[in-house]
Design brief:
Radius of gyration: 40 Å
Mean pLDDT: 83
Strand order of the largest sheet: 2-3-4-1-5
Number of domains: 4
Helix content: 55-70%
CATH class of the largest domain: Alpha Beta
């Protein structure tokens, strides 16, 4: 089996070698439908020295042999040299309005010498054309004009088309109740045929069923074909054929993904659609985007083009990332073949920056682990080298070290650095990292306050400053009105549903609770729901909130205008 590259060399040798001979040549190139035979042939032609002597003719859409001949002559005529020949023979004034069919009579064998004609789509030829006539014309071009001919075909599809045509009549006859019925009687019973002249329809279907293009092609083509070649491409060879201008994306990654698409993997039309979409993103070439983002984009577009969902593949998972912010724009690109470049640049650069930060943190973590292991096990690794290298990594990750390596590992490394370093200058470093860690936790509400203080216990017992720092940050958040009335209602709802219990509720002042519950019935209902919930669940880290609310209600129940309403609730609460 020849590879596509070997096949290309064979073609070039045959064409160049026979171009010097005064004799015709017919080459058959067969292969599966959609496998890229036509692309492959056009790639060969693009490398020929005399492309002006090459003509490509698709038989699809041609309704007669005369149509085919005219198409060839017209394409040849459009070449400058042929226009000159025609002008010399009939005169420039006679070109306009001249019947193309007459051109052939003016051309000699010399004019056709070295012409390379490719006939494609034999399996899509019109039922109004006889396959024998086409093959006879090819034989004429070869024998009388010494043309070099390439026949791109798919014999299996020809055979399938014949089978389908034959089944048209077979189905009608087979469905008749009596096998000795006349054609007129059979047709009259076919309710799916709405045309008035049913007999004419049947005759046409019967004629089509008897064409047998596959049998004719096999019988007569072997008499004119000199060389038969089969196109058996790989995914890589086909993809490389249509992706020569693709610069931004990783071709090998895309090829690997295409390999998973089953019976679509060699279909060059899908590949071409994919490339067309990806090339709309060529403006990203100068952006230096991380490869994981590019890979995930190409995978996402491929899934839409091929109408498949590619599962988790172990070999590629580490080369992918989340591109959710880009999906809306990518959907426009896939559906409408359009992309808002400026908006997409803004989105992808932000995504890229985040990914670069994540990767940088991973690199710092790996580097710290590596030099720590060197300290433990490498007797050639000096303590002062460890201190120097670890300090440099701490500086590189400044403000994020704990989130990079975890609190426990941070404590391990800093204790070791203090022990090995001649200067005890780590107090400020530890303070900066802990404050940064606390700020991130509180601002993102990643952990409840009680758990945060428990996690920082080893540091708090050494320096009570951290305990006070946590409280001050929470008060600062409250003062900056981070907690609106609606957000507290949502927070209480999440606490009751078990989604959140992070202690932030303790930092809402009694005064704010009192103002909000008096002005908003929804807030008061939320408060009463919380108190019922607390009585049942007894959450220890929310005692402060409950006590504040209980104090507010005891105060308000003393006022006549609130007394009955609040007393009713208190009675229900104490049941």
């Amino acid at each position: 089996m020849n590879t596509p590259e070997q096949l290309k060399n064979i073609f070039n040798n045959l064409i160049v070698k026979n171009a010097k001979k005064d004799e015709g040549l017919v080459i058959s190139l067969s292969g599966d439908w959609g496998s890229g035979k036509t692309y492959f042939w056009k790639d060969i032609v693009s490398g020929l020295a005399r492309q002006d002597k090459s003509v490509y003719i698709s038989l699809f859409g041609k309704e007669s042999l005369d149509d085919i001949k005219k198409s060839i002559l017209l394409k040849l005529f459009k070449r400058n040299s042929w226009s000159k020949i025609f002008s010399d023979k009939v005169g420039q004034s006679k070109i306009i309005g001249f019947d193309l069919s007459a051109i052939g009579n003016l051309l000699s064998e010399k004019d056709f010498k070295d012409v390379l004609i490719c006939f494609d789509d034999f399996e899509r030829i019109s039922t109004s054309i006889n396959m024998i006539d086409i093959l006879g014309y090819i034989s004429e071009l070869k024998e009388q004009y010494d043309c070099k001919i390439v026949m791109i075909n798919n014999k299996s599809v020809l055979k399938e088309v014949d089978r389908l045509n034959d089944s048209i009549v077979f189905k009608i006859i087979n469905n008749s109740s009596k096998k000795d019925e006349s054609i007129e009687e059979i047709i009259s019973k076919q309710t799916d045929i709405q045309h008035i002249d049913k007999h004419q329809i049947f005759n046409e279907k019967y004629r089509i069923s008897k064409i047998n293009n596959s049998e004719i092609f096999n019988k007569y083509s072997e008499k004119i074909i000199d060389v038969s070649l089969q196109y058996l491409p790989t995914v890589e060879s086909n993809f490389n054929l249509v992706s020569k201008d693709l610069k931004v994306f990783d071709k090998q990654f895309i090829i690997y993904i295409i390999e998973t698409t089953g019976n679509k993997k060699l279909n060059i039309r899908y590949m071409q659609q994919l490339i067309t979409k990806l090339e709309l993103l060529k403006f990203m070439k100068i952006l230096n985007i991380e490869i994981e983002i590019l890979n995930t984009i190409s995978k996402y577009i491929l899934e839409q083009v091929y109408s498949i969902k590619i599962g988790e593949l172990n070999r590629i998972t580490e080369y992918l990332t989340d591109i959710f912010p880009l999906q809306e724009n990518l959907n426009y690109l896939i559906k409408d073949h359009f992309i808002d470049e400026e908006m997409f640049k803004e989105q992808i650069l932000k995504l890229d920056e985040n990914l670069k930060n994540v990767k940088n943190k991973k690199n710092i973590s790996k580097a710290m682990s590596y030099i720590y292991n060197n300290f433990l096990y490498d007797f050639q690794y000096l303590d002062e080298v460890f201190v120097k290298e670890m300090n440099a990594l701490f500086e590189e990750g400044k403000g994020n070290v704990i989130s990079i390596i975890s609190l426990g590992t941070f404590e391990l490394y800093t204790n070791l650095l203090k022990k090995l370093s001649a200067n005890d200058n780590y107090a400020e470093l530890i303070k900066v990292e802990l404050e940064s860690y606390i700020d991130n936790i509180i601002s993102n509400k990643e952990i409840n306050i009680y758990d945060l203080k428990q996690e920082l216990h080893n540091f708090i017992v050494k320096d009570n400053y951290l305990d006070n720092y946590i409280d001050s940050k929470l008060l600062e958040i409250q003062e900056n009105t981070r907690f609106s009335k609606d957000s507290v209602i949502n927070l209480i709802e999440n606490i009751r549903r078990g989604i959140s219990n992070n202690g932030y509720l303790n930092y809402i002042s009694a005064e704010k609770h009192k103002v909000w519950l008096l002005e908003d019935k929804n807030y008061y209902k939320s408060i009463t729901d919380f108190m019922f919930w607390f009585k049942k669940n007894k959450s220890s880290n929310l005692e402060k909130t409950y006590e504040n609310l209980e104090s507010i209600l005891k105060d308000l129940v003393q006022q006549d205008k609130y007394k009955n309403k609040i007393q009713f609730f208190i009675d229900e609460l104490e049941k």
